[in-house]
Design goal:
7 helices, mainly alpha, about 0% strand
Length: about 170
């Protein structure tokens, strides 16, 4: 099976594609755009998914991931760059994956601590790309842009759960 980029973004105006992929000024005008995108993603999680059932988070994430693949991949083409730093829609869309099942964690800390840990772990895995995450960037088009961030988010989620488990056991 060969991954090909979605064709639907090709017909959209460049201004719209770039505005969505970069979240406007967040990706284009602020320093450390990936961090700002992750903060926007944290807000996205808190506003829309913090109290949603896990199935809703997964379903919305699948749709969001597909849309991000389309917009981020097309932004790569139009900017003539591979995984451009200003494209941050991928960070926003994957952030809810960092917190899958977070409400099932024991209440060993206030909510803000879990949110801060999830954010920090995501940035760690997104920047360093350990555990084979870096290899995902070689997927074609928007698939590579989004897949490494999704893997980083899932690694952050697993680490958060393992950390809470270890904290309560020891």
């Amino acid at each position: 099976m060969r991954l090909t980029p979605p064709a639907w973004p090709r017909v959209l105006p460049t201004g719209l594609v770039l505005a969505l992929a970069t979240l406007g000024p967040l990706g284009r005008r602020l320093p450390a755009p990936g961090t700002w995108g992750s903060l926007a993603g944290l807000l996205y999680f808190v506003v829309f998914f913090a109290h949603a059932p896990i199935g809703a988070v997964i379903g919305a994430s699948i749709v969001g991931l597909y849309l991000a693949v389309g917009f981020c991949g097309e932004a790569e083409v139009r900017l003539r760059k591979s995984d451009p730093g200003e494209v941050i829609l991928d960070e926003v869309i994957v952030m809810p994956l960092c917190f899958l099942g977070w409400r099932t964690l024991p209440g060993v800390a206030p909510t803000w601590v879990f949110l801060l840990l999830g954010f920090g772990l995501f940035r760690f895995f997104d920047i360093l790309k350990p555990l084979g995450i870096a290899r995902l960037q070689s997927l074609p088009g928007g698939w590579g842009v989004v897949a490494d961030d999704a893997a980083a988010a899932l690694a952050a989620c697993a680490t958060l759960h393992l950390g809470v488990w270890a904290w309560t056991k020891f």
